[in-house]
Amino acid sequence: MLRAIRHKNILPAFSAFRAFSSSAKEMTVREALNSALDEEMSADPKVFLMGEEVGEYQGAYKITKGLLDKYGPERVLDTPITEAGFTGIGVGAAYYGLRPVVEFMTFNFSMQAIDHIINSAAKSNYMSAGQISVPIVFRGPNGAAAGVGAQHSQCYAAWYASCPGLKVLSPYSSEDARGLLKAAIRDPDPVVFLENELLYGESFPVSAEVLDSSFCLPIGKAKIEREGKDVTITAFSKMVGYALKAAEILAKEGISAEVINLRSIRPLDRSTINASVRKTNRLVTVEEGFPQHGVGAEICTSVIEESFGYLDAPVERIAGADVPMPYAANLERMAVPQVEDIVRAAKRACYRSVPLAATA
Amino acid sequence: MSLSATKFVHPITAPPSTRSSDKPLFSTFFGSNHTKLRFNKPIVAAQRRSSSAASTSSPVVAVSDVVKEKKLKSASNLLITKEEGLVLYEDMILGRFFEDMCAQMYYRGKMFGFVHLYNGQEAVSTGFIKFLKKEDYVVSTYRDHVHALSKGVPAREVMSELFGKATGCCRGQGGSMHMFSKQHNLLGGFAFIGEGIPVATGAAFSSKYRREVLKEPGADEVTLAFFGDGTCNNGQFYECLNMAALWKLPIVFVVENNLWAIGMSHLRATSDPQIWKKGPAFGMPGIHVDGMDVLKVREVAKEAIERARRGEGPTLVECETYRFRGHSLADPDELRDPAEKAHYAGRDPITALKKYLFDNKLASEQELKAIDKKIEELLDEAVEFADESPLPPRSQLLENVFADPKGFGIGPDGKYRCEDPKFTQGTAHV
């Protein structure tokens, strides 16, 4: 009884934000995701949320805060701990036109459900020759957090993006988060939406257009975060922030880097990347996940296939270390790309001499 | 205040929807002093009848009543000797003080990431693990510090592992949730719930295999799989109950039912919250025991472990217990009712054991205080050791990915190919 009263005092994050719309327009990624879910759920009654702790706990990372109170337990479902089961249930519901948004507490746990994501969701439209489409969204934090060990830190972008039938999105800023999540929920196909735990609390400026409830971003289009002319740096999710910092450092040394925020891993925006490389003639790809068969491998190959004549230097690929994520703090720092690694690779691509690797 | 069971049913009235269940079984489940179980009797008896009708070989029985009756008979005899009592006390105090020290170190920034503390559940770890031999196996979840300590991993190694130092039991590579020790047969430490259960079942399979196929004498290791109430809704749990019973594996499935899975109450997540009943459904005994009382846990553990060692197969033991702290140190713990927390705090297993030792004149105040002091000193030394230990060196980053040093496999002579002086990494074979 006491708890019900307490909850009524908590406004959903989005409506709280609206009250101050005249002041500085900054939004955290968490608020962006919360507001996107809120608006899509209110626009379409077929949208519902499913996942562990999304309801009463307000979301394991508070992304779904306030939504249980607003939409009730029939549309915000706290599930038992059974990813394979509830993911399958979500896919089955989507077969019949409902629009579930399935939350994985981290994408590591999606491995327990990956059979349904790939076999029941991704392949269904093809296997049924278009009879059954699966308008489902799988979302949750992906990649490394801080000190959470090997089983909580893997990046799944490459795994999911290699599968035809899935759309794989990875936002960086609040604008990305809002726009891409709305686009994902409205999309008739299964979408894997890879967020990042460490970005949830970060604030980004947002324009009035972004705050509008009909705002959504196209899927399969990258964004050029920073224009440049000497080297192209592609990144997604948290690495975009690192790439932008690296670009600042490089600018001081006379290298003008163009930073591309991929936004969409599948479909990959090959034309934007290639157009950029044809302009700068050098490429550095950055990702957090394992290096072999990663997103960077695909981008490098695409550039070599389509823009080989324009390349003035070998393509550079930066990825996480080829080991399960260690727990010790110093080893973890070494296992994830840092800003210095991006700077060094960009310099190598520009034929500046640099030391081979960082010291511990 | 009468401890009526309904007070401890999830206090938030379940949302008025399809999800709440109106089964009367809910209200009689909690309050594990035996009078409550007695009210359960008609249902339990019915269960017993139907399950023994269904079984073919030995009668499969939910033994809560049996354990209860045994307790009453032996009320006059002491359940433990003085030495045993002190061992149990020391182990529980080590668990409790260690976890409190972890919380302190976390807030001082020496520990990071996810830390899941075991305060309140010590009776289960101590009650079960202290019955095992060194060769027996333990598989746990992310709430594994105390299982590691009870199994014999030195406190200083666990502490350095938590600090991420090279002297930790996993050289700093595993962390809080991934405690492994080959020497003490602690097989982890798994982050995904339910993940450890098939692994434990496999370990049990290996000891049976060694005994029957490889004909190793004395290969009678028992495996204990520890997991929580949330795990009992996961498919892997049921798959392993089936296979363990089918193949009569020497394993004990220990459910640490602390009623909460992060913020999800067991009642909101489970269609039938009485987990012990799921054992007989698969052909093994299912036992419900008061997990806040180390002596009761010990009795049940003894039976289950000996049953497994004799080769009679698995047992499912549900221990009703409670965690005094939140799910992890990052959990605000807002959803649990303070009255529920107070009720279980009043049933603190360490206090209960102390009372038993004093009442039965098995130990004196000074002896117990001496143990407390000894453990405090041990932990201070462990923290110092962990603090002074070095961080893992850069060269350690790429080690231990494979057991095979260069990844080229084993050659025809049975040794690693990379050790053969004629082996080159050169051209492919034609």
What is Rg of chain B?
A: 23 Å
Shape of chain B: globular
CATH 2nd-level architecture of the largest domain in chain A = 3-Layer(aba) Sandwich
* CA-atom Rg of chain A in angstroms: 21 Å
The CATH top-level class label of the largest domain in chain A = Alpha Beta
The count of DSSP E runs of length 2 or more, i.e. the number of strands of chain A, is 14
- Please report which band the strand proportion of chain A falls in: under 5%, 5-15%, 15-25%, 25-35%, 35-45% or over 45%: 15-25%
Termini of chain A, distance in Å? 54 Å
CATH topology of the largest domain in chain A: Rossmann fold
Helix/strand class of chain B: alpha/beta
Uncertain regions of chain A: pLDDT < 50 for 5+ in a row? 1-17, 19-23
Strands side by side in the biggest sheet of chain B: 1-4-5-9-8
- The helical percent of chain B reads 40-55%
Question: Could you tell me the mean pLDDT of chain A?
Answer: 92
How many domains in all of chain A? 2
Q: For the record, give the distance between the C-alpha atoms at the N and C termini of chain B, rounded to a whole number.
A: 84 Å
Topology pattern of chain B, helix = H, strand = E: HHHHHHEHHEEHEHEEEHHEHEHHH
Most extensive interface between two protein chains, with residue counts: A-B, 43 and 48 residues
| Beta fraction of chain B | 5-15%
CATH superfamily membership of the largest domain in chain A: Thiamin diphosphate (ThDP)-binding fold, Pyr/PP domains
Structural class of chain A: alpha/beta
